[in-house]
Amino acid sequence: MGDVLAGFHAVWEFESDSVLIRYERGIRTPKLFQALGERRIPLSAVEGVTLAPGRRGTVVLSLRPRPGADPLMEAADGQLKEGSDPYRLVLPAERETLAEYYADELKGLLTESGPAERHLVAPPETPLQFKAYDGKASFDGTSVQFRWSWTGASSAKWKAGDQSFAVADLSGLEWRSPEVFEGHLRLIRRSADAAAPAQPDQDPASVVFGLGYGPVHESLPFAAAVLAAMRSRAAVTSVPVAPSRRDPADIAERIRHLGELHQAGLVTDEEFSSKKAELLAEL
């Protein structure tokens, strides 16, 4: 379409295969939007479009992402407040006719639905870090580090010492919004003997949020980036070997994606060479 629709806090640019969302940086703009800056949403990551009346003389144009297509929304797990939903564009009511036109155009371009096999929306860029109530969390793209604060960390965490978790050793994570009671970020390890304590403040694989500590605009992009790195690595290590020949274009795309992961440091030289050889063998 190549057109632009400006609303409160964001501008949507419609392209033939995606929607480019540029978030404003004004004082009234939600901090999460400011942190995200700009996001390109492939239409393959969207399964629905809605237009509904908003508050105080506004209308709201919304995209509904496919489950599993966006690491940010997967990490949020439905906990974002309506005003912080990055897939909503709030417009003055007088633009309803124009918004309805774009909604209809988008609906005609959507072809995918249901859970996505992999993330289709780019995750927040690393390195990332934020200050939690009981420590400082940082992520460089390959490992997560927790450094405990002497004023907030429990004795159990001090006893365990500062922690470092390689992406390869993680099987999942749990983000609980700091805007609700007992917010935290918990990493789930693969090892069978790594059963987590019931309370996050006693778990060395968790950091606890508090008033002003681990805010949504810092801790959620962090969680999304870690989750995306985990999913990407899992997808590479479980590439199936097809019994028959595959479409060369599909193989080329998989090798390109594998190369990106290798460049980002998420795949070792040995893993890259091995998986590339397996994919080439399918031709």
From TrEMBL:
Domain DUF4429: 12-106, 137-226
Protein name: DUF4429 domain-containing protein
Record-linked Pfam families: DUF4429, SHOCT
Residue ranges of every copy of the SHOCT domain listed in the record: 253-280
